[in-house]
Amino acid sequence: MPTAPQTTDELYEELQANQRRPYGRTRTVTAEELVDAAERFEETLPLVRALLELQEAYTYGSEPRKSPVAFARLLTLFDEQPDVFDENLRHLVFWRFKWVASALRALPEIPRTSLRQWLTEMRERYEKAGLGLQPYYGQAYRLAAHVGEDTDLAFELWAARTRTPLSDCEACEISERALYHLASGDDERALRTWEPVLAGKESCQEEPARSIAHALLPLLRAGHTDRARELHLAGYRGCRRNPSMSGEVGRHLEFCALTGNEARGLELLAENRNLFDEVDSPLELLDFLNGVEVLLRRVEQLGHGELPAAGFPGRTWTVTGLRAEVHGRADDLAARFDARNGTTAHTDRRGARLGRPLLEALELTLRTRRLDEVAVVPGVPVAAPAARAVAAFPESLPELVARARALDEQGHPDARACWTELRTRVTAPDYTHPDDPAVGPLARLRADLLADEASRRGERDDFTEAAALYEEAAGLYDDAGTPAHAALARAHAVLATAEIPPQTSARAASETPSGLPADGAADTGGTDGIPAEVAALTAAHAAMVRLHAETSGLATYQEARLLRLRATALGLRLQASRSDGHVAAVLHEVGLLHDFATRHDIPGQIAGALVLRASTFAISGDLPAAAAETDALLDRLEAHGPAWHLPRALGLRARLRLGAQDAEAAHADLGEALRLAADWPADAVDTARLHGDLAEACMHLGRPDEALRHLTRSAELNLRRGDRFDAYCAYSNAATLSLDLGRVEDCIALLDSLLAEPDVAAGEPDDRLVAQLRLTRARALRAGEDLKAATTEFLALAAESAGWDDDPGSHAMIAAETAVLLAEADEFDRAREAADQALAAHARDPRHEALSNCLRELARLQARQQGSDGLAGALAFLADAGRVAEEAHSAGYEAHGRPLDSALAYEYGRVHAYADAYEDALAALEKALALIGEPGPDNGRAGEWAECVRFAAAMEGVYLERPAPALARLDAAVSRLTALGHTEETEPLTSLAARLRDEE
User: Fold this and answer.
1) How many CB atoms lie within 10 A of CB 581?
2) Residues β-bridged to residue 309
3) Which of 158, 271, 785, 972 is most buried, with most CB under 10 Å away?
4) What are phi and psi of 715, to 5 degrees?
5) Which stretches of 184-318 are DSSP H helices?
6) Measured between alpha carbons, how far is 818 from 850 in angstroms, rounded to an integer?
């Protein structure tokens, strides 16, 4: 605290503020300072309240050694000055006897006799105070279960007794009964007992998170895999990073290990690294370490003991090193508890957990990861599982070089694997370059490897690095005396340079999902008003034509590649300009390529020419010609190959069919493309894009769950090849879709995983993309009713987006959502501030409909929650909404949903109704009806009109007690709607009419 409280009122304010903090070091230290401050007052009551807060902080901050000390001081005050304690404080004192019993059990240095003495003290005090003994027997049972002796008798003595006001809450007692049945080996009865808690019917501060953690494995054993998965996602959020629930975190880690989700387990372990340092309870620590060891043993058994793992502070750990450390510490803790208790219960339980087999492989989250992806450096590709067997590499280096070069000339996908193997051999410390004319000098081989790496970089849109690598390769080719190879490498460098965005964020600005553009806009200025990208590609084409003309001695495959690069440059220019004037030039270059490749029988380049021709027609808008060219391409590939071009060609035809609204045919093409793609490396046939396109087709066909699977698969493949931007975009879309499907916990778990990635945490990816991920997560938290966490995230995003000078519209949207969340928490002053921010941003970049919706909702919330006291504030929000509607009308904007003017009039009616101003409400609803107009047979606004009629009739007949005109209004509306065929819309009206007639 900056300054100590000077008055008891200030002390109480500080205590209340501290109670709003999460449990942990900050809350505990503040509570200790407040006790020191309370001791300076002459009154005893402030000290009592401060000690109660301190004991709570110790208890839920996992500091059991200190909790009994604080309670001892409190109990002394209770004995010496009982009059200070009112009924509520007296209740708290007796309640916390149970807390001390739990704290003492958690400390192996406390003798077993002392544990029994404390229970005797508790019983005697309860009897003296005339209190029921069920809570005492509850603690006696817990001690018996902890020790592992006389458990059945202790359970019966507790469970058969009637509950008292000092009994644990229903949820906690249900959990204890279920754990008893679980320890007895009766999974089925335990799960039946747990059901009210697992279903959310009973809850408290620790429940259902505690019960969920213990129920996961029984659910799996009983075959309830889907429910176990759902509860893992929901329950983990309730205990993560919480020292007082570290044992439950350990059980979630164990669940991951025993369901084949070891990578997720390591991820969760890293998220909870604080628990190694912050858990002061030996019993909680033992439970946590047992779960950690189950996970680490499983990872080590799978051959990944060298992976890094989050562990005890002060050093870095591998899985193997941490497992050994955890094993020693946990063995010691179990032995200490058993020595204190005089049993072997804790060692036996620990052994049982460590000996459990893998139960069932489950996909716990939308982001399935392998262990070899855990320690991946962002941007570095990961080897994907082999889709098919590749011919064994020859041991002879000259033979391997010859194979790599031959496959590379054909454009065969297997060339990549050969270059990768060569890179491994050449970079080995003991590598000696062979003196073999077929291999050539080392400079030639190094240039080949650089060109391969440059190609990979270009495929991941890292054009700057690709251009540099191609230039370096060209220099080495010159040194090796191979000018034709040097020319081809330089042509690649020229094209890669032209593809570098004028600003690094230009690509992000066009691809960030959900309309949040990247920081900055692309520089579209070139010479003479020509966009910079178009000018660069024009210059690149001219440079390649000159290079082609100046280079002699080109092999036929090299000349074909140069022609392909020239055509590609012009194709990219057409894509950037969308100018009809650029079409002929592309088709001319494609024709040159096709003629040359046909004359020299180069199948790969013939296919490439046909792809370029079809793409050119598609970009120019000639879809029939594009479709015809694609059909011809597929016919040729099926007849003459090369087979590895088929998946891409099918993908092209599928995209054309999607553009023609034939999603069923596109879905079929993409399914066949993926089937064929399984025969080739994923990056060679762009399997990631095929999955992304198939997700789009599925959405058109109304198959969102299937779309979700393909989105996550696309993201996974992009990550494996090092394209993190596209991967995060796909995952972002998957998260949004899962939220739309109501899979809230899936959405949150996916986004938590992404936001914990090292490059995201370090701020390396595009900031708008990360903001989109956080925004979706905040919306998911709100949907999951974690309003506190959602509000915190929205406030942070609103503050950050306020600095987006290039995109005030997005800030308006975020600030508007933030305002609504604040209003739902009754913080209307802060909601007003956020709404004003939204309005200011809207003035720069209008978001008419979204802002109007927000302002009307703010008005509704304030009027509903504050009644007439909130009417002025609500009307101020509606006045702002009115100005937004007028601006929209002046700008010719048409809302996608309800028209803004009629929606506003309806909200005026609702706001006045909440404030008991029924005449004003009725007048506003009459205006709304006039704005909506009479419904017609095909009028989509019949439902809106019917609701407005119902509300007006309710105002008139119920609140203003004028049933006759209300019934006349309802009967006329029912007749009109029935005549128009809108029978469903009549049901609320006939129901209200019946009610009014019953009351007459």
Assistant:
1) 8
2) 317
3) 158
4) -65, -45
5) 187-198, 209-221, 225-237, 246-257, 262-271, 275-278, 282-301
6) 13
Per DSSP, 958 falls in state I
3-state secondary structure of 667: helix
HEC letters along 179-210? HHHHHCCCHHHHHHHHHHHHCCCCCCCCCCHH
Question: Side chain identity at 234, as an amino acid letter?
Answer: A
Query: Three-state SS across 368-437?
Result: CCCHHHCCCCCCCCCCCCCCCCCCCCCCCHHHHHHHHHHHHHHCCCHHHHHHHHHHHHHCCCCCCCCCCC
Q: How far is CA 326 from the centre of its chain?
A: 31
Using alpha carbons, select from 630, 632, 614 the residue that is nearest to residue 622. 614
CA distance 743 to 273: 28
What is the rounded CA–CA span in Å between residue 586 and residue 123?
A: 92
Distance between CA atoms of 930 and 856, rounded to whole angstroms?
Answer: 19
Residue 561, token pair as written in the block = 């590649």
Distance of CA 954 to the CA centre of its chain: 44
DSSP E strands, 903-992 = none
CB 640 within 8 A of CB 662: no
The residues near 414 (Cβ < 8 Å, ≥ 6 apart) are: 390, 391, 407, 681
Q: Which of 366, 431, 446, 195 is nearest to 730 (CA)?
A: 366
Vertex 108: Cα angle to 106 and 110 (nearest 5): 95
Torsions phi, psi for 299 (to 5 deg): -65, -40
Taken as a whole, the chain contains a residue count of: 1000
Residue 162, Cβ neighbours under 10 Å: how many? Answer: 7
Query: Which token pair is 247?
Result: 């044992």
Q: Is 475 exposed, middle or buried (0-12, 13-18, 19+ CB in 10 A)?
A: middle
Q: Which amino acid is at 45?
A: L
In Å, what is the CA distance from 931 to each residue of 94, 266, 875, 934, 938?
64, 59, 20, 9, 18
CB 841 within 8 A of CB 811: yes
- Give the count of beta carbons closer than 10 Å to the beta carbon of residue 867: 13
Which residue, among 714, 738, 375, 740, has the nearest Cα to 752 in the 3D structure?
738
Q: Is 318 helix (H, G, I), strand (E, B) or coil?
A: strand
**Run of H or E including 866:** helix 848-866
pLDDT, mean of residues 528-537:
84
Residue 300: which of 316, 313, 288, 318 has the closest Cα? Answer: 318
Q: Could you tell me if 361 and 254 are in contact, meaning their C-beta atoms sit under 8 angstroms apart?
A: no
**How many Å apart are CA 876 and CA 880, to the nearest integer?**
6
Closest residue by Cα to residue 443 from 412, 497, 407, 489? 489
Task: Report yes or no: 913 and 921 within 8 Å, Cβ to Cβ.
Answer: yes
What is the model's pTM? 0.81
Tokens of 456: 């990979």
CA-CA-CA-CA torsion sign (446, 452, 454, 456) = negative
Residue 586 vs residues 458, 537, 580, 659, 744: alpha-carbon distances, Å: 21, 12, 11, 22, 48
CA 684 – CA 153 distance, rounded (Å): 68
Query: Can you tell me the distance from the alpha carbon of 782 to that of 790, in angstroms, rounded to the nearest whole number?
Result: 5
CA 473 to CA 364: how far, in whole Å?
45
Per-residue model confidence as pLDDT tens digits over 402-442: 999 999 999 999 999 999 999 999 999 999 999 999 999 99
Give the tens place of pLDDT for each residue, 915-944: 999 999 999 999 999 999 988 887 678 899
CA distance 458 to 499: 9
Calculate what percentage of the chain has a pLDDT beyond 70.
95
Q: What angle do CA 349, 56, 209 make, to 5 degrees?
A: 45
For tokens 């309309």, the residue is 515
Model pLDDT for residues 757-786, shown as the tens digit of each residue:
888 888 788 888 999 999 999 999 999 988
